[in-house]
Amino acid sequence: MSKKYNSKKVAAFAALVVLPALGIFFFAQLKWVHKELPYYFMEESLDGKDSIPQTVSDIVLYNQHGQKITLDDFDSCIVLVNIFFATCPEVCPQMNKQLQSVAEKFGNNPDVRFLSVSIDPERDSIPVLATYAETFDADLFKRTFATGSKREIYDWAINDLHLATEQTPDDNFIHDDKVVILDKNRHVRGILPTRGETNTERMEHIKRISDDINNLLYEYRKQNMDQ
Hints:
5 helices
């Protein structure tokens, strides 16, 4: 009876721990395959004859060191942008942890940078942003946390990034958990979820974001070779 019970315990352990771990390991070994990224939003050209990719507007922000920045400071880079606020209890910490995992994958590539913008400038002061950035061990060049004018950030997030963002009457914030991928010309080339209910889902999101970054990097390498 004891041997049979122990066998059941071993089988249960394998089902709960070993098999999911193996699944995550094999998922992580999946190879990136190039896929051309679409342009998400198009608008009419000045002459009205063609459709051209929408260019995300510039915005003035202040980073975790109190420095004034704009999108020009990310010039010639692929930029991943997300919206958050520091007192967010669940969505934002999970989202920013996921993005930190992606940022670490591209830590040695200066052409890939991350911009996390707070929609709560009243509470997310420069010292608060600095402390928040430290919790993710965020390198300033690779990963910038910033805020600015609340009205301008909301307008930018909704009309340029096309993210769902709003403040409720009880002073809570509702926003997407998505990250927006901007190419070097400030065109939206991806809007991807970051969070997941399981480790497998979280790994899938990290891989999808990383794959899309690699797709854009490949696009620029190919352009350089063709010149």
